[in-house]
Structure formats: C-alpha cells, structure tokens
C-alpha cells in the first residue's frame, strides 16, 4: 500500500502523521442514486489537497459532507482525530472548517467589511452593544482591512466598497479572506478559478498558496488540471463514488490523472 | 499557463479584464454616470422627485406651502408611512405583503371592539390589539418560512382571511371615536410647532422611522435582512439563519401595522371596517417610489418616508391645483411605473 514514496510527505519527520481532517467510509444515497459509495479522504497539516473527478464522481457530495452542507447516511468524519457530526454548515464553521463556495456566498449589495463579518458581526462593547445591539463598524472595517492586506489583496483601498462593484477575482479574494480570517483548521475551496480569467486565476492560486503557507491546510476542488498540478501537494481522485487514487504532481502526469479519473487506467495504490 | 477551460465543468467563463474594460468605457457617458450615482445613492432619485413636486405645486397654488396645508399633508401620509415601513422590511427581503392594510384595519377593529363591546380598559385594548396584529404578521411569516410558500400567495390568502374576519368581528359597523377611551384616538390630537399643527401620530411615525433606520443600518439583524434579500442562498451559506430573519421581518411588520391601526383610529376619529382596502397597495407604492427594489436587498427606510411624502404631496397638490380627484390615481400610477423602470435600469449597473 505504500509503494508511492514520492509524496510531499516523504520529508516529514514523524512517521505517524495525524490527518487534520479525515473521512472514513462515508455513504450518501438519494433514493436509488448513490452519491458517495465509500467516501474516504485524508487531509494532512500544511498541505493543499486537490480533489478531482469527473462530473457525478461524487466529489461535490463528499466535500459537502465535510463542510456540513449534507449529512452522510453512514461513515465517520474525524477532525484532529475526534469524531464530529455536522448538522449544518454553521456547525462545521464553528469547528474551524471554512468553505469558499463556488457561488462565493457573498452579499453583493453589502460592502467588503460587512461581507467579511457576515453572520459573525462584532458589536460595540458596553451598553451600546448589549442593549442597542450596535455594530462596531470601525473595528470590523479595521480588521477587514488587516485581513485583506495580510493576504496581499492590496488593490482594494476602500473597504466600504460594495462587493458587487468588484471584479470576479476580487470577489474571490473577499471570500477567501473571510475563510482565512475565521478558519482555524481547514479551508475548502470549490472551483475557485472556474469563472476567472488567466491573470485573476493566477492571483487566486497564489492566494491559496499563501493561505497554506500561513498554516491552514486546504482542500481544493477543481476541474482545471493545470491549476491542480500547479498548486496541489497531493491529488485525490474520486471516481464512481469512491477514492480511485491519491497521486502527487510529481508521481503522475496530467494525462495519468485523467486516465485514472475516467477509468482508462488501473488506479495506482494510494499515497498515504 | 494555459488558459484551460474546465473539462466538462459547463461553467460559462467570462474573461474579466474584458468586462472591466467594457464597464470603464461605458461609464464615460453622462447617462452612465447618473446611473452610477443613483446606484450608489438610491435616495437621490426620490428626493429629487419630492423637491421638484413641492416646487411645482407651490408655483401652481399659493396655498400649498402654507403651514396649515403642510401639516395636513403630513397627517394624511402618516398612516401610509407607518404601513409602508413594515412593507419596506418585507420588500427588502424580496417579499411582498398584500395584507398590510388588512392587518391594520382588522387590528383597529379588534382594539375598538375590545374597548367598547367588552369594556377592556383603553390601554389594555391597545396592547392586546398590538399583540394580535403582531400575531397576524407572524402567521404570514410562518407560512412563508415553514411552508416555503411565495409571499405574494401567502399574503393574498391572509388578505382575504383578515378582511373577512374583520367583517365578522365588526358586524360591518363603524365604532365612533367618541365611544372609545380617549387614548385610542390620542394619535389624532395635535400640538402646535412653529405654526405647524402636528399630530402625535406623526411623531410616532417619525420615531418608528428613526428606530428602523438604526436597526437596519447599525445592527447585525439589519445586515442579515439585506443579505437575505440580496441572495438568500448566499446568506444561508454565510451562516445566516435566513428562516429566522424572514420570520422576524414578517412579525415585526405585523407589529408596525398594528401601531398603524392606532394611528389610523386617531386620524379617522373612529374604527371603520370599510377603510383600508387601498392601504395595501398604497403602502407598496410608497416603498417603490422611495427607491426600494422589489427584487430585494436594496433600499432605505428613509426612501420610504420620502415615497410616502411624494404620494401625499401629489394627491394634495393636484387637488389644490384643481385637478379632478379621478386623475390622481393616474398620476400616482405613472409615478410608480417610472420608479420601477428606473430601478430596473439602475440595477443593470451590476451586469
């Protein structure tokens, strides 16, 4: 089972690495349709794990189970080795798993600061906050600016700008900054570059690397092979509701990955 | 790096630099600039209409700007403004409330009959009426959130139900103000302020606008109302309990309509089951004229106040100008169509 030694993990000192997030034997059925036949996934500290698979391979369902958007019928999810049960996305967020959805889940009419703190607003201290529920807009704006500049999203001078006035890449930046600001364990990104041009895609990919380098492991779902091979430390290939293989950009080529994805090639044994 | 399009993702890829460039080129035109300004400051359009209307009507009729007349306009718009405030909250969530007037009128009948038929003390009758009005709003909210029915259908149904119950309870009889405890028509009493005769009802109305301006712009609840109306799925994914937000909005609107009922009894010096049919649509008119988008997520309560004033000023000014009453509806209707067209146009800025 451990034939692949070219994994990024080769240099890891500790022989027993504990995954941050682990899924074991997840099953999800919708009536007669099986979305996840056996969902297994491990995410290790400090890595970008790309999840690829053809349409209908169950990667979206697998990810939704991890971020609380669907509840699996059976199987278990372990966060830092402890079993967790997410009833909704909020549960997952409280546990430290932040998701950047393909739709971004931003409110276009609200400004950047409001969006960063959407659902987690900060109230003023004292009576103003407790009785009059007044928001601490200055603090929210300041912290939003800090988070944005930490990630090098410096093009946004005005944190009070409505999100709808931003470009696609900038909106993605806002969504990533929000997850990076609040995610303590894992960040999941669903097709972050699907709607972006070349330049903006590259900027977002760099943003994802920055997030990883700052210590937050990342799960990236993408159809875009060049992007996946550019950025991923390991690549999880989902096929027919199961994990077909785990490879690395060094161990296999893009066409190998596509072959495994489509079933043209026998899957190699997984990289631990 | 190759600009690889997704291998079967089916996502329409719009190259962003192109779109941005397109936008910048277009913003050169003055019309486009107006569009951007209106988009950034949605209150400007309604305010311009109001100021323009006041100028025109003051030229047409010398009496228009008199203190007595302006006081009258304010008194006339007070009830509609209170109802429109509740309506604004609902329209901000991309909903609509056709039962606003029905809840207000039914609440006023309940308050009046409690006090007169059952001999409940005035203040208590008011409080019970406020609770019942709130409950009626909550019923709308439950139907919208629990059953997931479209707000239009829900409130169309409750509109009929509340009006019908209203006829049953009132036996289609008007309760005269002189038969009620004085507190119930207190909202219609006036005080003098620099020559203006202002009703206490108008003061209540202005206070309510101040409260909800604050709640919408300075509390998390307000942000959640906007986010829910803007894109409910995005709001849900961002962790907002959109069901709770919607339910709270319909419930609070019910309370506002019931307060409107109190103001209404003061204005009419009675509680009549036969008024208020037009209040449902008038409240929507005021919201729309105030620049709040029927698509949700955009709008200001201050705009609704301006919208209600526009309706009041037009009705009053046309009357003073000697225009037949039958044409007033026509003028208001045209205004609504223009307002909605402008809203559509402004929203295109996003594309």
UniProtKB/TrEMBL annotation, chain A:
The record's annotation in CDD domains points to: ABC_Carb_Monos_I
Q: Which organism is it from?
A: Pseudonocardia xinjiangensis
Query: Mind listing the UniProt keywords for this protein, alphabetically?
Result: ATP-binding, Nucleotide-binding
Kindly provide the name given to this protein in its UniProt entry: Sugar ABC transporter ATP-binding protein
Tell me the Gene3D superfamilies matching this sequence.
Answer: P-loop containing nucleotide triphosphate hydrolases
GO molecular function annotation: ATP binding
Q: Which residues form the ABC transporter domain?
A: 21-265
Pfam families, alphabetized = ABC_tran (PF00005)
UniProtKB/TrEMBL annotation, chain B:
Q: Where is this region: Disordered?
A: 1-25
Does the keyword section mention Ribonucleoprotein?
no
Q: What topology does it adopt in the membrane?
A: Multi-pass membrane protein
Pfam families cross-referenced by the UniProt entry: BPD_transp_2
Please classify the protein's predominant subcellular localization into one broad category: membrane
Q: In its UniProt entry, what is this protein called?
A: ABC transporter permease
Give the originating organism: Pseudonocardia xinjiangensis
Cell membrane keyword on record: yes
InterPro entries, per the entry: ABC_transp_permease
Q: What is the lineage of its organism?
A: Bacteria, Bacillati, Actinomycetota, Actinomycetes, Pseudonocardiales
Signal peptide region: none
Keywords attached to this entry: Cell membrane, Membrane, Transmembrane, Transmembrane helix
TM region positions: 43-65, 72-92, 98-116, 123-143, 149-169, 190-216, 245-265, 286-314, 326-346
Its annotated compartments are: Cell membrane
């Amino acid at each position: 089972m451990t034939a692949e030694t070219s994994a990024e993990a080769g240099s890891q000192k500790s022989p027993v690495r504990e995954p941050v997030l682990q899924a074991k034997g997840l099953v999800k059925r919708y009536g007669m349709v099986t979305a996840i036949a056996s969902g297994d996934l491990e995410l290790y500290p400090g890595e970008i794990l790309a999840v690829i698979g053809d349409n209908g391979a169950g990667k979206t369902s697998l990810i939704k189970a991890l971020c609380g958007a669907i509840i699996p019928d059976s199987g278990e999810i372990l966060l830092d080795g402890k079993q967790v049960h997410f009833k909704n996305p909020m549960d997952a967020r409280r546990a430290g798993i932040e998701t950047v959805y393909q739709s971004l889940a931003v409110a276009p009419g609200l400004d950047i600061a409001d969006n960063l703190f959407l659902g987690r607003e900060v109230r003023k201290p004292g009576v103003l906050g407790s009785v009059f529920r007044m928001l601490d807009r200055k603090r929210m704006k300041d912290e939003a600016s800090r988070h944005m500049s930490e990630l090098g999203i410096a093009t946004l001078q005005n944190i009070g700008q409505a999100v709808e006035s931003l470009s696609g890449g900038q909106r993605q930046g806002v969504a990533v900054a929000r997850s990076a600001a609040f995610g303590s364990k894992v960040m999941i990104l669903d097709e972050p570059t699907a709607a972006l041009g070349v330049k903006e895609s590259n900027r977002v990919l760099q943003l994802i690397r920055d997030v990883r380098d700052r210590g937050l492991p990342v799960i990236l779902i993408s159809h875009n092979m060049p992007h996946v091979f550019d950025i991923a430390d390991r690549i999880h290939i989902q096929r027919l509701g199961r994990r077909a293989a785990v490879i690395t950009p060094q161990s296999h080529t893009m066409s190998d990955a596509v072959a495994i994805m489509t079933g043209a090639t026998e899957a190699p044994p997984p990289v631990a | 790096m190759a600009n690889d399009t997704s291998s079967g993702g089916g996502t329409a890829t719009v190259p962003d630099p192109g779109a941005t460039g397109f936008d910048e080129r277009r913003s050169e035109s003055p019309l486009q600039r107006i569009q951007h300004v209106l988009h950034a400051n949605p209150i400007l359009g309604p305010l311009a209409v109001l100021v323009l209307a006041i100028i025109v009507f003051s030229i047409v009729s010398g009496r228009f700007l008199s203190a007595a007349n302006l006081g009258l306009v304010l008194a006339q718009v007070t009830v509609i403004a209170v109802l429109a405030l509740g309506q604004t909250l609902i329209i901000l969530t991309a909903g609509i409330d056709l039962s606003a007037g029905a809840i207000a009128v039914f609440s006023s009948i309940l308050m009046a009959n409690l006090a007169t038929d059952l001999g409940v003390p005035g203040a208590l009758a008011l409080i019970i009426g406020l609770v019942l009005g709130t409950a009626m709003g909550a019923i709308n909210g439950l139907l919208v959130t629990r059953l997931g029915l479209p707000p239009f259908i829900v409130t169309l149904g409750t509109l009929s139900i509340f009006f019908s119950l209203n006829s049953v309870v009132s036996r289609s009889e008007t309760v005269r103000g002189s038969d009620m405890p004085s507190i119930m028509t207190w909202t219609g009493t006036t005080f003098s302020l620099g020559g203006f005769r202002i009703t206490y009802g108008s003061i209540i109305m202005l206070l309510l606008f101040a409260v909800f301006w604050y709640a919408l712009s300075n509390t998390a609840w307000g942000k959640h109302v906007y986010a829910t109306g803007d894109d409910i799925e995005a709001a849900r994914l961002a962790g907002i309990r959109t069901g709770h937000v919607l339910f709270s909005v319909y419930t609070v609107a019910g309370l506002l309509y019931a307060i409107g009922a109190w103001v209404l009894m003061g204005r009419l010096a009675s509680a009549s089951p036969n008024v208020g049919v037009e209040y449902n649509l008038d409240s929507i008119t005021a919201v729309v004229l105030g620049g709040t988008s029927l698509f949700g997520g955009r709008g200001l309560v201050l705009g609704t106040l301006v919208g209600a004033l526009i309706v009041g000023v037009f009705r009053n000014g046309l009357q003073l100008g000697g225009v037949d009453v039958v044409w007033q509806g026509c003028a208001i209707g045209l205004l609504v169509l223009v307002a909605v067209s402008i809203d559509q146009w402004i929203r295109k800025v996003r594309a």
